[in-house]
Design brief:
Elements lengths: L4 E3 L6 E3 L1 E4 L10 H13 L4 E3 L8 H13 L7 E6 L15 H15 L4 E6 L8 H13 L3 E6 L4 H13 L5 E4 L9 H6 L1 H6 L3 E4 L28 H7 L2 H16 L4 H10 L4 E6 L4 H8 L10 H11 L1
Parallel strand pairs: 3-4, 3-10, 4-5, 5-6, 6-7, 7-8, 8-9, 9-10
Antiparallel strand pairs: 1-2
Helix pairs in contact: 1-2, 1-11, 2-3, 3-4, 4-5
């Protein structure tokens, strides 16, 4: 099945419905040639959006991805790339867990330097910052767009009320408005996208670039019998994932979903990814992989979308709600 391209919210930018992200894998698991090979495999499948963030692997993820783009010699107009700012890389006041103007203006320059790029297409405020006035953040993000350092800005894991407040400030002052939000969205994590944001889709034309479609691997079924050696949850620094991935209630749902996937003649991962794309408000579903074969397997989820008719979707609802 050919890749589908969707508008990012109400903007004119089109992104592949499946995209490729570097969280966790770039740095600890991937570097150099393997990263370039995974990016190339995604592009071969029609992926045009590559997601990243300043905080991933402490800045290394941006460097690795930038070097991969350079090695692949892709013309800049052929791909869409993002970064996200908030956590910070430098110790000291004003540089950690903030969206103040000083941090944001310096952070974007450092990100571009690591990428080796003149601009990113998308820049996200990686988390809300209750200590900085929303107005200060909106002005800084708008100025970033005006300076040509990014083309569109948005938010990640913000509450609906905060997104609306930012949009209203931008509208009132004729500034560049937030275009997209990056929330977690998968078969086991639905509330924000399906309930909290409901009014924002029509009211402000919010687009979504959703992350963790496989719930950090839970929706592959590989954690049904505990944590396998070499999996993400076994990595140092990811201990917090273990309790989530071994949760009994979640794994009971996973077992039922896995049985449904067998019935549909697909893998649970394919079913999970295909299901995310069925939501018309989702502009792109960010996938992750540490091997080329994994990238290709993720992309075959597009072949499963047509099998998810109304009856199957209702059965999925019954299992997951």
């Amino acid at each position: 099945m050919d890749m589908e391209y969707r508008r990012l919210g109400r903007s004119g930018l089109k992104v592949s419905v499946l995209s490729f992200g570097s969280w966790v894998t770039f740095g600890p698991q991937l570097d150099g040639q393997l990263a370039a090979d995974c990016i190339a495999a995604a592009a071969e499948a029609g992926v045009n959006f590559f997601d990243n963030a300043e905080a991933y692997a402490g800045g290394e993820s941006e460097r690795i991805m930038g070097e991969a783009f350079a090695a692949l010699k892709w013309p800049r107009h052929t791909y869409v790339v993002s970064t996200k700012l908030y956590w910070g890389l430098h110790e000291g006041v004003n540089m950690r867990n903030t969206l103040n103007r000083k941090y944001l203006m310096q952070a974007i320059d450092s990100s571009l330097d690591r990428f080796g790029l003149d601009f990113v297409d998308l820049v996200f405020c990686h988390r809300p910052d209750p200590e900085t006035p929303v107005e200060e953040t909106v002005w800084a993000m708008s100025d970033m767009i005006s300076a040509g350092k990014a083309l569109y800005w948005g938010t990640s894991e913000w509450a609906a009320d905060d997104i609306r407040a930012a949009w209203d400030i931008a509208d009132r002052h004729h500034l560049h408005k937030p275009v997209m939000e990056q929330p977690q969205y998968n078969l086991l994590w639905r509330k924000k996208v399906e309930r909290e944001f409901t009014r924002l889709y029509d009211d402000i034309g919010l687009g979504l670039t959703t992350w963790s479609p496989l719930s950090s691997g839970l929706l592959t079924g590989k954690y049904i019998d505990g944590v396998p050696e070499g999996s993400r949850a076994s990595l140092p620094g990811y201990e917090w994932l273990r309790s989530m991935l071994t949760d009994e209630r979640s794994n009971a749902k996973v077992k039922s979903l896995k049985a449904l996937a067998v019935e549909l003649d697909c893998t649970l991962a394919q079913l999970s990814l295909a299901w995310c794309t069925k939501n018309p408000h989702v502009s792109t579903v960010i996938t992750g992989a540490s091997r080329v074969q994994q990238v290709r397997e993720n992309m075959t989820a597009l072949e499963v979308v047509d099998r998810l008719d109304d009856d199957v979707m209702a059965r999925i609802d019954a299992i997951t709600r």
